[in-house]
């Protein structure tokens, strides 16, 4: 453990923490764009800088480890001045479309610009932003959109794809606001390696990567388990007007904030008008709705007739990874106890 001071308040923290993590233990908020506790810190965005007593240069809180005896200042005049420059430079390069952007109300750049009184030169921001030639929006992916005009070069999309998803579906080069054009940061997004998992969309702090259909603002979140397989990924359903309008990955034990393409984008079946809501029995060549009692009686009659004609070995069961372990256990028990054979398989066995 190290004894340190944050804003002249003494505290004791683990020697393995970064300054950003140490500040979190004291509920001190430090603005950040590129930080993600799952990723290797690179301090790309530069807004999380703090001042350390005795040092001339400011340091990035996300990538600097605490040292014994440190006295850290998170909101000094020098810190605020540097953060203002970072925010101002980002906004000068940013398409100022907050009122029409899908991320309005849930955008870190918008929040920091509104909440922190850093003394940003709004006239310069408006002037520089209006001069920028807008780059074409890439909507080639069927599930999400990449708008380079809103990219702030935090590289979280690239790093999540590289370090966590291991898909390598995004190419990234250079850094900084003066040595590169906005179209050079993400040279190619949605390469053939891309599996459209949407994890890049989930971590984007602004409106550069957004789903083609979905809502961010004024939604209620409900934690649940993804139904598509047996991994048990946790996510939050975004609910608006009693309809599911989006999915946000949760930090569950099995998924750690990641999802596959089905978990992230495959929620629309819930409200689909063609979704089955009652059993169907084919009568005279056409499926007709039936009650559950009629369906159970129909299945039992079919079971008995097949058993009398062909014997127990005529039965087989195939179960699904979308079921829970308990449901799969009950199904195999039914095959062995009712069908009286071991002809049971599972879609995920291979």
Overview of this protein structure:
Residues 142-161, 185-214 form the 4Fe-4S ferredoxin-type domain. It holds the Pfam family NADH-G_4Fe-4S_3. Residues 1-78 form the 2Fe-2S ferredoxin-type domain. Residues 219-274 form the 4Fe-4S Mo/W bis-MGD-type domain. There is one protein chain. By secondary structure, the protein is of the alpha+beta class. The protein contains ten helices and 16 strands. It has helices at 19-25, 77-93, 108-115, 122-131, 156-165, 182-185, 199-203, 261-265, 292-310, 325-337; strands at residues 2-6, 9-13, 49-52, 59-60, 71-73, 144-146, 170-172, 186-189, 209-211, 220-225, 234-240, 243-249, 280-283, 286-289, 317-319, 344-346. The strands form six sheets. The chain has a five-stranded mixed sheet, with helices on both faces. The chain has a three-stranded antiparallel sheet with strand order 10-11-12. The chain has a two-stranded antiparallel sheet with strand order 6-9. The longest helix has 19 residues, at 292-310.
Shape from CA axes?
elongated
The whole-angstrom Rg is: 27 Å
List the uncertain runs: 174-185
N-to-C SSE string, H for helix and E for strand: EEHEEEHHHEHEHEHEEEEHEEHEHE
Number of strands: 16
| Amount of helix | 25-40%
Beta-strand percent range: 15-25%
Structural class: alpha+beta
Report the biggest beta sheet as strand number plus sense, adding barrel if it closes.
Answer: 5 strands, mixed
Total DSSP helices: 10
Distance between the termini: 48 Å
Sheet with the most strands: spatial strand order: 2-1-5-3-4
User: Mean pLDDT, nearest integer?
Assistant: 88
